[in-house]
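Weekly puzzle thread! Below is a chain. First person to post its structure in token form gets bragging rights.
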Amino acid sequence: MLLLGPLLALAAGIAILIKPKLLNYIVAAYLIIVGVVGIFGI
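Winning reply:
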């Protein structure tokens, strides 16, 4: 589970470079995933 954050950040960074308009969606998805993982301790 330790690799999830860095891998997600890397994938998001690459996607934002390719399509900058995705930034809002990627940030929102990342925050939701981090929140769910934090709450449920997955």
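Puzzle host: Confirmed. Bonus trivia for everyone else. The chain is about 80% helix and 0% strand.
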